[in-house]
């Protein structure tokens, strides 16, 4: 199947749809990229926009040349695109970063002293690890969404007087399940707390509205949003960010430097020291505009394929799907599972070498969540996106059934600590030779 979007939304993903990969058997097949949750390929519209912009690329904000003026407009318009993409308030700051991890570390540096932070222990490491100290309360994620809301309520009630912040993932990068963001936000408001949303896995799949969700901050990554050029963003309330020390000290963040000291910018530039990644920021803005123009088609495409995927996986002997919650709820196109008797790393290697399928194995930078759900093991993760087709999904389900029925057709070893074909006759692309 192909994704049927409005013609203005160009969604071809050449990195998956047009790429053939070699198999150990000597054949080549179209690459089935089922690892979008790690990094999504580049939209054709984003690639073309970057190619069009590159001749005009120059320094931003301080250049008098015409190309610098063009680049500055590109950079600032991308800020507006991000604000629209997450339906931010007009007073919210949009700070460009490298990715979600960078954004949440910036926010962790900007919160007022003695802020109480509440979060679930199954968060991705980007949301889990920046928060340290005695005022951080990690909650063991309950087995139902309703209990999750109650757990946040109880944790906030136990916090001392002062600023409070709930850090919450929009969609689990392990299971794809959506967290009850709106309900938790309502509880947080009751206790005078702010909410920071890790939107890395939610933003490529669902429209985000800071206003409708009543969320204060959201962090996103370009490489999850089909703009893999090294830019991300933190969008949210400006007061804590204005009052905090600059995230990095350097040019661009300064209004004036004298022998006696420094006067820092008070706006977004305060946390954007150094020459920015203008190309990456532009790519991110274009990707956000493309997705915003076709959300209904994006979600319909994903929901159809997710149902197909889960039905196919259910037919694989010994396969157990991971889930955080016992109650059913909305989810994005990410599924993790284990297959009894098979090491996930070995399965991933066989799927790649013999079937041309890319999946993720391990603990997905969410070690606590994955190991709790598997009983201490690694897992396999399949994640869908705009480049996914019905054939990709069906090929995976068939491959898993064949592997569990008859085993691999090749030999595998761990020459560098990871499973790989031994020997591996596949030739690398010419640009690597």
What does it look like?
This protein is an alpha/beta fold and 433 residues long. Helix content is 36%, strand content 17%. The chain contains 14 helices and 19 strands. It has helices at residues 14-17, 44-53, 66-85, 100-110, 125-128, 145-157, 181-190, 210-213, 238-243, 278-292, 295-314, 344-355, 367-374, 390-406, and strands spanning 20-22, 28-30, 32-33, 93-97, 116-120, 136-139, 164-169, 194-198, 217-221, 232-236, 254-258, 261-264, 319-321, 334-339, 357-358, 360-362, 379-383, 412-413, 420-421. α11 runs parallel beside α14 (390-406) and α12 (344-355) packs across α14. The radius of gyration is 23 Å and the shape is globular.
> Which regions contain 5 or more consecutive residues with pLDDT less than 50?
1-12
Q: What is the tally of beta strands?
A: 19
Average residue pLDDT: 95
The Cα radius of gyration reads: 23 Å
Q: Helices and strands: which structural class?
A: alpha/beta
Helix content: 25-40%
Large-scale geometry: globular
By DSSP (H or I, 4+ residues per run), the number of helices equals 14
**Gap between N and C termini, in Å?**
35 Å
Task: Give the strand order, joined by hyphens, for the main sheet.
Answer: 4-10-9-8-7-5-6
What's the story with the biggest beta sheet?
7 strands, mixed
Strand fraction: 15-25%
